[in-house]
Amino acid sequence: MLNILNRHKIKIILWTLILLYIGYFSYFTILRYKTLYSSYFDLGIMHQTVYNTYQAIKRHDMSRFLELTNPFGPEQIKRMAIHNDILLAFMAPFYFIYSGPETLLVIQTVVLALGAWAVFLIAKQVFEKEKKRNLMGLIFVTAYLLYPPMQRANIFEFHAVTLATTTLLFMFYFWLIKKYKWSFLFFILSIIAKEQVALTTLFFGLFTLFESWKSNKIFRFSLLIIITSIIWFAASMLIIIPYFRGSNHFALNYYADFGDSPMRIILGILDKPWSIGKYIFNLDTLRYFFLLLGPTAFLSLLSPLHLFIALPEFGINLLSNNWNMRNIVFHYTSVIQPFVFIAAIYGTKKFSQRRLIIVGIIILIFSLLFSYFIGPLPYSRAREVHPFLYPQKERTDTAFWQNLLKNKKLKVSATGQLAPFFSSRRFFYVFSKNYNLADYVVLSLNEIYNYPDKDTLIPVYEKLQKDKRYRFIYKNENMEVYKKL
Prior knowledge:
The strands form two sheets. The chain has a five-stranded mixed β-sheet with strand order 4-3-5-7-6. A two-stranded antiparallel sheet has the order 1-2. β6 and β7 form a beta hairpin. The protein starts with a helix and ends with a strand. α6 (164-176) packs antiparallel against α7 (180-191) and α8 (197-214) runs antiparallel to α9. The protein folds into two domains: 2-34 and 100-374, no CATH class; 395-484, no CATH class. By secondary structure, it is α/β, with parallel strands linked by helices. The protein has helices at residues 2-34, 40-59, 101-126, 133-145, 148-155, 164-176, 180-191, 197-214, 220-245, 262-271, 277-280, 283-293, 304-307, 311-318, 337-349, 353-374, 386-389, 395-404, 419-422, 445-450, 454-466, and strands spanning 67-69, 76-78, 412-414, 428-430, 440-444, 470-476, 479-484.
C-alpha cells in the first residue's frame, strides 16, 4: 500500500510540474503574440502554411496543401521549397478546433512539456535498480522544464523542429524498453520535423547498432533506422527541396566556405579538416557548450557516447556562418536537447547509490542557477517580460483590423509584427515591393523606421504613399492602413 501511495504521489508531482509549465508558457506565448512581439518570421509563415493545409482538408482542395506565399517573392509556393518539415501538416486537424496562431503556440508548449514525461521514463529505466529512481526522475524532470534553451525555443515563434525535442526523447525511450514499433513511429515523426534531423537519427541508428553488437542482439532495427535516415536526408536535400525550390537548399549558403552543394560541402570538410578550426575553436563555441551543458551540471560529458548522437546537429550549428545558429535564444538547439538530458542521466548513473542524492542536489542547484541567469522566466535576470509590462500600442487597432479584414478572399500585406494577425488566408504578402498585389496594406511605422531592414522598407513605404492605386484610409499613432482602389 505504501508503494502504491508513493507512486501516486510521484505521478501527482510529475503531472503538476508538467501542467504548470503548460499553463505558464501557453499563456505567455499567446500574450506575446497578442501584444505584437511575434513576427512573420516565423509564426506568420508557419501559421499560413498550416492554415492553407487546414483549408485543403476542409474544402477538398489539395492545391493548398502545405502552401504559403513566398516570403521573398509574389508567387505561391510549397513549404518544401524552404524546409522539408512536413510535420506541419499534422497540425492542420487541430485547426478544426481553432484556426488561429494560438493553436500552434499551445501545441508547441504541450508537446515540449510532454518531453518531461519521456525524461522521467528514461531516468526510471536507467536507474531501475536504484531505490531513489523516482526521485532522480523528478529531479531530471525539474531540470528539463527549467532548461533555458528549451524554454527559449518554446517562446521563439513556432517551428516543427522544436517538437523533435520530445519525439526524439520518446524514440530513445521506446528503443530502451525494446518496443521497436513505437520507437520507429517516433523516429518517423522526428525526421519529418525538418530535413537535417535525419542526420541525428542516423547517428542514433549507429549508436543502437553498436549497443546491439556489444550484446550480440539482432540489429535489424538499427539497420532500418540507418537506411531510412540516409534515404530521407538524401531525398530531402537532392530531390524534394530542389524540386519545389527550383534550386539547392537556401541554407547551403551558410556553408559556402566548404562548397556549394551538399556533397561538395561534405567533401570540402573532409578534404580540408583544418578549415573548420576558425568556426569551432573560439569563445562563441565555448560559451555555446557552456550554456547547453551547464544546466545539467555538465554531467552529459560523463557519457560522451550518448551525447555523440547529436554530433551532426552540433556540426550543422557550429560550422554555419549564421551566428544565430550558435545562440540558445532560437530553435536551433531543439535536436541537441534530448541527448544532453539522455547523456546527463547516464552520466549520473556512474555515481554510487550513496552519492546519487548529492548529485541530484547539484543538478537542481545548477538548473536553478542557469534558469536565474539566462532563463526567460519572470524571476530570471534575462527575463522576458515585455508582453506583460510593455504591450505595444497598436495591438488594439491590429485586432480591430484583423476582424474587419476577416474575409479570407482579401489579399493583405502587412509588416512583420502585424503579419501573424493577417496570415489566415491563402494570399498574404509580408510588406515589401510586392505590396501592390494586396487589396489592403497594414503597416507599423515603428517597424519601417526603426527595425534592421529599414533601409529596404523606407523606400517601399515612400513609394506606397505616392502610389495612386492605393488610398490612405486609416492612421492611429504608429499604424496606417491603405486600400487598393
